[in-house]
Design goal:
The chain is of the alpha+beta class. The protein has helices at 18-30, 50-56, 65-68, 85-95, 97-107, 112-124, and strands at residues 10-13, 41-44, 73-75, 81-83.
Length: 141
Amino acid sequence: MESGGLTDPVLVFDGDCGFCTTCVTWAERFLRQTLASGGWEAVPFQFADLAGLDAVAGGRAEVSWERAEREVLWVTPAGRVYGGAQAVARLLMRSGGVWAYLGGVLALAPVRPVAAPVYRWVAKNRHRMPGGTPACALPRR
């Protein structure tokens, strides 16, 4: 993030979670920008300037430690914040190619009500997913 704001969207994820880190590593390898798509940056929330990202988003507490430890966040240079399944959809759309179509489907109004609970189930069970460890478990509320 530059001092004047963002130049590319930022994907904020849980860097302490092995499953999350594995997913982001996969995305960085296979979904990285092409000439047809724009760039993006992945940052573990533990090392991200969450206050700065929230300021980009208008200072409405949309980017917080509590939210970032429960769901992946996609913060755009225009200040839009997407969480969970919609953050994944935006990442896919930004990546271009066939991934953009998949992201577009996830963002469709009829699909969002299905994508959100699926994302929440995966997040709740991420310690059981490939690459996950007991340290990946979400904190109890």
